[in-house]
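Notes continue from the previous slide.

Worked example: a multi-chain complex. Inputs as given:
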Amino acid sequence: MIAILVIPIVTAIICYNIWNPRVVGYVSLAGVVALVIAAFPVITASFAGPVSALNEAFSMDALSGYVMSLVIFLSLASAIYSISYLDHEFEAGLTNPRGVRTYYGLLHLFIFTMLLVTMANNLAIMWIGIEATTIVSALLIGLGFHKRPLAIEAAWKYIILCTVGITFALLGTFIAYYASTAVMGTEGALNWTVLRGVAYKLNPATMKLAFIFVLVGYGTKAGLAPVHNWLPDAHSQAPSPISALLSGILLNTAFYGIMRFVSIVQPSTGSAFTGNLLIIFGLISVGISSIFILVQDNYKRLLAYSSIEHMGIISLGVGFGGPVGIYGALLHILNHALSKPLMFFASGKIQARFGSTNIANVRGVLASMPLLGTLTFIGALSLSGTPPFNIFVSEFTVLKAGVDRGLWFAVALFLVFVVIVFYGVLSGFGKMLFGSPDESTMAPSAHHPQGLNLGRVLANGVMILMAASIVMLGFKVPAIIDTTIKACVLVLGVK
Amino acid sequence: MKNWIEAFSVIDYISIGILLTAVTLNAFKSIESYVKAYTINSWLLAGLIAVVAVLVGETHLYIAALLTLATKGILIPLFLRRIVRRMRVTHEIQPYIGNSLSLAISGILVAVVYASLKDGIFVTGFSRNALQISIAVILISLFIMITRKKALTLVIGLLFMENGLFLAGFSLTFGMPTMIELGMLFDMLMGVIILGIFAVQIKRAFASADLDQLTVLKG
């Protein structure tokens, strides 16, 4: 189990010391493949029952295993996509060998911090992991290799807002620790495995206070409105493979922290308190993002606001609660982790081709790049929640949880906002996909070699795979994913 | 030693010192004074932890005091001083509101904290005042962060906020286990270093360390 944490660090060090920008991408890919091999048995074991290491400091149950498998899957996809992305940046003169090796070194450190969050048994170690993700990813956004003022502005906003937010989460963690010392004597505990056993004995008033701080703190990191302001900037300025990781999984690791807290706060306070707060945050997120999606003229920012919307839906799912709500939220995490990275990968290629992130400057993607256009089309349909694609299924499940609880007002608002998003996403991407391409707006073809090369074939392969899973999940949730999510629901103590 | 600490209520005096150093931020005009105030604040925090360690007699508190002194009291101030020198900023902090109004608002913040925590939701371990003071320090530093426009004042505001948070942590639970505390301090140190690097980058890219310049990304 410890190997899972060691491999990314070793890969980061090796990548940072390779000077050849063509080789380093494949070395980083080999590192992620090694990580997959090391993690596979641990994750399968965690689905069956808790696995722990280092004197219970690290412990994994089905939920950790689920989130970790998403982290590793997206790391693999990003590592593959990065090869062709950085090749292109390097040829276009946007980066240098130093930039490339720094990028890969930081990428693997970033993967390490996210793995740490999913493995930590101790709530304070989880906090350390989440804070570390902020620090490393801020470097990836701002320094990586984009020496542009806008990227620095985005990274500055990101690190300041998230650090302030996360400081509140630490205060919440302190308060939870205080509540546990009151129950367990001087030897208070922050270990999730211990806290879950005594959760019903904790002081409800103290735990309510702790939860408010944690929700605001980790909510900032998870991109819940109204504390989301860093998100559109960071996601639109980061390199595309990093945007994919930020949006697809980083937000979810922060939300994973909230879910852990929900399950230790609920036994003493009852589910209404946490549920209502999450529903309010969820509705505000979906509402605010729907309006910004509608008026957006930059497609990377549009995707970023769409992430806020989907985090809002996940929050609503957990807020509605019950087995159906949690099931819908967890399925939505998976679906969003497939669709959004696909769209960021595709938008990276569109940006490389058209040299602009403005919707108005991009025309006729389907005509000029048929494969990429089709993939983008599938991703856009999925993100907007069109049936029969995957996100429709999980949105519908979340909606059903709300109807079951009889929360008609919240359900009605949710539906209105989702309809606005449906129109906003499809009209934005529709303008880009259809029509005939205008040759004069395209980047010079010197920056866009047409021949086959291994990196581009791999990148296309991973995007086709993601699009195929999007279509497949829309028709049927495979039995293995179904049983895993049900095991996660049990871990969270919902019956 | 213990009797002496209790007789002169040393803990309360140190806590008040921590509050006062935070309040003085409202009056200072130069970034150097901000760094000095932070240094004093951190030394007081480390001193407080050491005094509590004497009272309780636990080794992990002595270690925590030393760690706090080393990182917050020595490493971070030295780094900040280097950054200030490297940026060659004008050293003048232009707040969005005047110093006297700013001081008055800080006073009101302290009063609000004392009024709302009067009954003491928490039975604190070693002092009646530490929790109130820590929350007040957190609020004052947030206030400083939103009313000053130099990049470095934001960083120092954040650092004051973290000092307040650590004080809150101590008044609630006598601190975390040593390993975890080490992890937190490490995270913080990294965070400050990276913020410092970005502050220099902002200065270089926008030819100014004022955050007014950062207005391109919105909507």
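Summary box: The radius of gyration of chain A is 22 Å. Chain A touches chain B through 46 residues (CB under 8 Å).
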